[in-house]
Design brief:
Blueprint: H1 3-12, H2 16-25, H3 28-45, H4 47-50, E1 71-73, E2 79-91, E3 98-109, E4 111-121, E5 125-133, H5 152-188, H6 190-204, H7 208-217, H8 225-240, H9 242-255, H10 259-266, H11 271-279, H12 284-307, H13 319-324, H14 329-334, H15 340-363
Antiparallel strand pairs: 1-2, 2-3, 4-5
Helix pairs in contact: 2-15, 3-5, 3-15, 5-6, 5-8, 5-9, 5-12, 7-8, 8-12, 10-11, 12-15
């Protein structure tokens, strides 16, 4: 058997998942997006270890400190392992302008698995080991610091955890609503279909951001951060289920008169069993694609609400809360590194869109 025949036999004996994965791997941007998404979720999962400092640690002598300059050449031109110099705050007594000067007398190499701020890893155990850092009195601020002297690099990872979890939890709730209501609407038809479709039309006739703002503004300001977190997630999911419901309805309308559905009816299967056991599995791949493309919308919704001050509020740290620090044009002009969290938002949105596009092409039998 030659190589071409072996490839053909492997293709004919492959499962649907294998065929989808082989087609997905041909999409370069989709693979890049998948790698970025997996890396970002892993970083959010282990952010206590990856972040060199705690998200609330303040360095009062490093307020608005620019990103640390990592060097490999010392002042004499000799090559060393990556290191930083200690930075010293200097304030002009006439203009009150802050500047940071490097003390080049001593080098502080960047080390791995160093001890620093204490943390509890998901409440399981207490540790103080961080992936990288430098010895005191030097400090390593990869993205600089904010107005309170907090490390922006560490806060970006902690903020990504909150924003990404809201996206996943919100999409999960939207998935339940969309599949259930869309399934009932498409399979049952009649008055149930009319009522559900009218509700969808009413929700979709409102602009998303004003509707988010109106619902979020109704939350009392004294609510704790955890309660606001879940309410924001519920608000986003209650608005975001309509697209999935319409997609499920359309698929069920096209499939409900197929022979396998009629056979299930004659066999005595109930309506819910037919919907969830026979109909929905036939287009699960399309549901996965829709859900994947919906996650960045949830992340953008949380970011927009928190940026406008009606979403999550400090001490909760999310990407939207971090971007709220960059609302002032003067602040951005003087401290442009405060805009770095927006790169995380852009990366999340683009990577999920690439993954969704790749999945859509992989599961579509008519795409090339």
């Amino acid at each position: 058997m030659n190589e071409e025949q072996q490839r053909l036999e492997k293709y004919l004996n492959a499962s649907t998942r294998q065929l989808v994965w082989w087609r997905y791997k041909k999409h370069t941007l989709a693979m890049v997006g998948l790698a970025f998404v997996v890396g970002l979720y892993l970083a959010a999962l282990f952010c206590e270890v990856l972040a060199p400092y705690d998200k609330d640690s303040r360095f009062f002598d490093s307020v608005y400190s620019p990103p640390s300059q990592v060097r490999i050449f010392d002042k004499d031109g000799a090559i060393h392992r990556p290191f930083v110099y200690e930075t010293i705050l200097d304030i002009d007594m006439e203009t009150q302008k802050m500047s940071y000067q490097e003390n080049t007398d001593t080098m502080y190499p960047i080390k791995f698995f160093v001890r620093g701020d204490h943390y509890e890893f998901w409440g399981l155990w207490r540790s103080d080991v961080h992936l990288f850092g430098v010895d005191k009195p030097a400090r390593l601020f990869v993205f600089g610091t904010d107005r309170m002297g907090r490390d922006l690099f560490s806060r970006c990872f902690y903020g990504s955890r909150i924003s990404l979890s809201i996206g996943m939890l919100g999409v999960f709730m939207s998935l339940i609503l969309g599949v259930t209501l869309g399934g009932v609407s498409g399979y049952m038809g009649g008055w149930a279909d009319s009522v559900i479709q009218r509700v969808i039309e009413v929700i979709r006739c409102f602009p998303s951001i004003p509707l988010w703002m109106g619902l979020s503004a109704s939350m009392p300001p004294h609510w704790p951060g955890l309660k606001v977190y879940f309410v924001i997630t519920i608000i986003l999911s209650l608005i975001g289920w309509t697209d999935l419901a319409r997609m499920v309805r359309g698929k069920l309308i096209a499939l409900r008169e197929e022979e396998f559905v009629l056979a299930a009816r004659f066999a005595g299967a109930g309506h819910l069993r037919i919907i969830f056991r026979h109909l929905l599995p036939s287009f699960t791949s399309h549901i996965i694609v829709t859900v994947t493309l919906a996650i960045p919308g949830m992340v953008l919704g949380e970011t927009a609400l928190s940026f406008l001050g009606i979403g999550l509020r400090p001490p909760v740290t999310s990407l939207g809360v971090l971007l709220k620090e960059a609302q002032n044009v003067t602040t951005i002009a003087l401290y442009p590194w405060l805009l770095i969290p927006v790169l995380f938002v852009i990366g999340i949105v683009l990577s999920f869109n690439f993954v969704g596009d790749g999945l859509r092409d992989a599961v579509d039998p008519y795409s090339r």
